[in-house]
Amino acid sequence: MSPALKTLSPRQTAMVAAVESLTASRGIPPSLSELADELGVDPSRAAALAHECVRKGALTHEPRVARSWRVAATAGRERQKTAESKETARKRELPSRQ
Q1: Which member of 35, 68, 84, 98 has the lowest number of beta carbons within 10 Å of its beta carbon?
Q2: Which of residues 93 and 18 earns the better pLDDT score?
Q3: pTM for this model (two decimals)
């Protein structure tokens, strides 16, 4: 278990698990409304839990970007995959020099 996850409360751990499972099942990160429904709490409580998880390093979120809640380890892998995809596309566009 990572150090960040050791410091999470049971509700915060449930928030991280909800982000992970909803992202896996739907293929896109969840909205706060979806997280609130999944956890059975008000959207304002879901927001507070999610922001506390960000503060503790368990989740990442880009302000003012919809559906940007991600599990911290997953977010790093997704950024790396995106960067690799862009690099691959760029290499394909470059004409070969011979």
Answers
A1: 98
A2: 18
A3: 0.70
